[in-house]
Amino acid sequence: MSRRPEKREKEKKQIKYFDYTLLFIIIFLVGFGLVMLYSTSSYNAQVKFGNSAFYLRKQLLASLIGFGGMFIVAHVDYHIWTRLSGLAYIAALGLCTLVIFAGAEYNGSSRWLRVGGISFQPSELAKFAVIIFLATIISKIPKQIGSLMTVFKILAIVLPIVVVVAVNNLSTAIIILGIAVCLLFVASPKYGQFLAMGGLVIGVGAVFIMVESYRAERLRIWLHPEDYEKGYQTLQGLYAIGSGGLFGKGLGESMQKLGFLPEAQNDMIFSIICEELGLFGAICVILLFLLLIWRFLVIANNAPDLFGALIVVGIMAHIAIQVILNIAVVTNTIPNTGITLPFISYGGTSVAILLTEMGLALSVSRRIKLEMV
Amino acid sequence: MLRYKTFNRKKTMTIFVAVILVMIFLMGRLVYLMVFCSEYYGKKAEDLHERERTVKAARGKIIDATGTVLAANKTVCTISVIHSQIREPEAVIAALTKELGIGEELVRKRVEKVSSIERVKSNVDKETGDRIRAYGFSGVKVDEDYKRYYPYDTLASKVLGFTGGDNQGIIGLEVKYDAYLQGTNGKILTLTDARGIEIENAGESRADPVDGNNLHISLDYNIQMYAQQAAEKTLEQKQADSVSVIVMNPSNGEIMAMVNVPEFHLNTPFELNYEVPENTTEEEKQNLLNGMWRNQCINDTYEPGSAFKIITTAAALEEGVVSVNDQFYCPGYIVVEDRRIHCHKRTGHGAEDFVHGIMNSCNPVFIDVGLRIGADHFYDYFSRFGLLKKTGVDLPGEAATIMHSKENIGLVELATMSFGQSFQITPIQLVTTVSSIINGGNRITPHFGVSIKKDDGTLVQTFSYPKTEGIVSSETSDTVRGLLEKVVSEGGGKNAKIAGYSIGGKTATSQTLPRSANRYISSFLGFAPVENPQVLVLVVINDPQGVYYGGTIAAPVAKEIFEDIFPYLGIPYDEKAAEELAE
């Protein structure tokens, strides 16, 4: 795309663009997610709360809030975030610190802040904040990104939030770090240093696992889930996946969700999708996520400026990492770690913030200047 | 504003391609899990979800020779409550309290207990179960089950036996033929959630139960009834400890009746049939129950006394050491080595031939005959007649013969053995051995089991029992029958005489150990018709009060039974015999 000097001509030939494909995919994913969530959670909800729609109602409410957020953010010029990014980062850091001391405990880790009747997971906000914060910083110093020093400096800037989040929620910390690395990778003209960095991470990770017996145990559970009590969830997930077969048992027909697979509506929801919809349904879901990521690619590569592009790259990295890690965990391809499947797993904060994030991507898409050819 | 450069796009593309590659890998992983491992994981998951529920098979009936059902099944219900499904707890508590007749406190405890399923009462009869079902309460389960039921309750209780909670035989024929009667329980496979609650409408696969087969026995309800009534009357009149009666077909060993009064209640076998002090411990009570369940005809041994003279006679005739016309002299006692053994008639029978010796049941005559046979040979006859082995009757717990070892039989032992003392056998053993001697010399196996049939009458199996031929010659058999006829017609057994029927028999009176207790067992063994014995009866009265002579108290009982069953069995009335008797 070449820049046209005459403003008048440009205005004339410009077409208002909005990525309806992305919007459609998002709406479809959320809709599909709610159906699967209801199917998966109704039994647990009935048993625990005596109301089969308990989880569905909460998720639906969060989705509506999320769609509201998406609508607003999509209609606001995304450049406003350059000014808010520092604030957002500090706020997220503060909230994540707060949660360590004042968090509500659930399933052994305190990840929630409870204000009034609403509970809220700050680590989800942290991802969002890191995306806009890093996009802002990098887009301000694009020339220096090439130097390794700058890369480390920027990583050092996000390090506090990574550490704070990691206290309660290692998985999310890994995602944040992943997003940061992706942003740097895209912004930097170099490849070599990232390859080296990748190698270093793998090496350090290996040493880390060797040293900490807790990690090593996880590794053994991963290899032989049937031999360990802690491998129960993984194993039950595999039972669900395996019993799905090619076309699944049919929507609502999962057996594993009936208390065998604990908290099936959270991290393990993909295994219930496999059980009910089969290999066919599971691959459709993966393809849907690929379609979503492809839309981010298109928007990023056509974004009017570096900041917009980086925001979308950040979102893309966020979604891609989470989907990949979740499916890899569910299929026991990697050791178990708690990562939700975007839009589908139960989690109000997650779905609300994800939708707002989508609004950001849509907002960037609205600035794409198509020209009449 | 800074532009997004080409290298940025390339790198974004790189990320996208990397994502695609990883996703393809994950899809491959899914294909592996869901296609190639599908069967393995699917099976494991199914094992986890399936619960097996058994459907009880109906136990086979026990049917007598007339086709009367002696042991059947009754449908009973188990009432349970499922806490999570109960909508109207108060109404449920009220209804269950009313219908089940148990305390409201207990019902309330069960209904309000937070558990997946709680049994309120089992063994509830079907009508009550149906009434409870009719209320239509949600969360109240009425499960039907079978319970063993004995229509005649006490009839042949120690023969039939009873079953335990798991449909397993505990004593009697119920144990012996358990494998035929039991059947195979069916299975219902249902899907349940992780808490074990069945999922409604989930496709259930079931294996239907195979009902047990019916056992047809030779016992005859009518004969058993006659015998039991006669025995009960005697028990009461003589205030005896117990009265046992065996009615058997001597030619094939089919037992037509086996009575041991007092019988117990088969439908409540764990309740003693008499009062016990309240402070009886459980262990004592169990011992008393075991005693109550004993089948004296089979589980207990006794000294057969004079009835054994039949066997001594057979042995002597076989050995050829005596003929019916041999002359003996009874001074009232006989001296063997240094012992003086008395005849029951202290004044002595004087001069008599062998026929009168047996008619009088004269001990010195039989001691003499026994000594003529000699210890070695006598022992051999014991063995040849089958007295040393169990009879093989198809009831559990048959007692073995208590006998001297061969080398310990001195003259005194030989002398006492020859009139039925100093060793012990079971009543069934006596009946079997005598049958074998009078039926022409074929050692038969006493039994109840005739055949196994399905409920629709299809024959599954007919039982056959071992028979040893020629334990005595037919001549000996003839002679013994003739001698025993004399005993009834003119001798000690004349109280069993019935005009118009030829009856053979022998009385016995034995003193139980220790002799000082002055406790007696009176018995009479009789059979008819003499020429071709079709029925043999043994009456054993254990510890009667007052007169204890077998000829006086046991023979009339046998007579009473004979009178009842001869017409029933179609044993021909013999005009000539009746006339002879009249003369």
From TrEMBL, chain A:
GO terms for cellular component: cell division site; plasma membrane. It comes from the Bacteria. This is Probable peptidoglycan glycosyltransferase FtsW. Keywords: Cell cycle, Cell division, Cell shape, Glycosyltransferase, Membrane, Peptidoglycan synthesis, Transferase, Transmembrane, Transmembrane helix. The keyword Membrane applies. It is an enzyme of class 2 (transferase). Pfam families: FTSW_RODA_SPOVE. InterPro entries: FtsW/RodA. Its EC number is 2.4.99.28. It is a multi-pass membrane protein. Peptidoglycan polymerase that is essential for cell division. Belongs to the SEDS family. FtsW subfamily. One of its GO terms (biological process) is peptidoglycan biosynthetic process. It catalyses: [GlcNAc-(1->4)-Mur2Ac(oyl-L-Ala-gamma-D-Glu-L-Lys-D-Ala-D-Ala)](n)-di-trans,octa-cis-undecaprenyl diphosphate + beta-D-GlcNAc-(1->4)-Mur2Ac(oyl-L-Ala-gamma-D-Glu-L-Lys-D-Ala-D-Ala)-di-trans,octa-cis-undecaprenyl diphosphate = [GlcNAc-(1->4)-Mur2Ac(oyl-L-Ala-gamma-D-Glu-L-Lys-D-Ala-D-Ala)](n+1)-di-trans,octa-cis-undecaprenyl diphosphate + di-trans,octa-cis-undecaprenyl diphosphate + H(+). GO terms for molecular function: lipid-linked peptidoglycan transporter activity; peptidoglycan glycosyltransferase activity. The chain crosses the membrane at residues 20-40, 60-80, 87-105, 125-142, 154-187, 193-211, 268-294, 306-331, 343-364. It is found in: Membrane.
TrEMBL record, chain B:
Residues 55-201 form the Penicillin-binding protein dimerisation domain. It comes from the Bacteria. This is Peptidoglycan glycosyltransferase. It comes from Roseburia zhanii. It is found in: Membrane. Keywords: Membrane, Transmembrane, Transmembrane helix. GO terms for cellular component: plasma membrane. Belongs to the transpeptidase family.
